Amino acid sequence: MKNKQRIMAGLVKGMTGSALLMISDWLMGACGKDNVTNGVVQSNWAKAAAWRYEAAMLIASIALFFLVAGIHEMIHLMKLSRNKRDQWSLRAVRLFELGATATMISELFLHMKGCVLPILYRKLYSTSLMESDMFTVVDDVFFYISIPFYIFAILVVVCTSVPYMYQVFQGRLRVPKWFMLLNPMVLWLVGWVLRLFKVYVITDFTACMVSFGFLLMLWGFLQHVIRSPEARRE
To answer: Structure pTM?
Structure first.
């Protein structure tokens, strides 16, 4: 493999960006003890410190500069690993490129959504509106952005994870088969299972699961590069 050191450096940058996004996700998504969900509204939004949402947006903005470097290298490695005789492998690479591109485009938008709704609820909470009216306003605001939100969320989570799992399963990436589990979609599903335990510390951590999945997937690509032989010099 050519330029191993450069590729590894890019993947490490991507892992750094994913770690920063985990911090951002926790700041905007952790609701603490005795939280109650009503639609998209979390009751503890009113108690959370305002600086958390400001910090979450700032950290996410910085994280993207690092994450984009890692995404660029993941796309490059997926193209190198494709089997040109296997149509499904070629489709997997195209799908991964679509999901990775969507991640670069939408990640800041997805984090902004996660911060703007709590901020809106906090502003309404300080007024004389009835609580039911506050829930309605926040739910209505989310309704207007829900279609692009869900479209990009699916592209980000599914269209990166499924092609990665396929290439690992086919042996196109030099990692064990269990590395198929190290991706955003699987970690997101694990997060939903963990929430069933109703333990607030665990529930708060599940806010970071998608970013954690990206970090682990980048680590999987890094292991592939480490195990790939150096390109021969003529």
So the answer is: 0.91
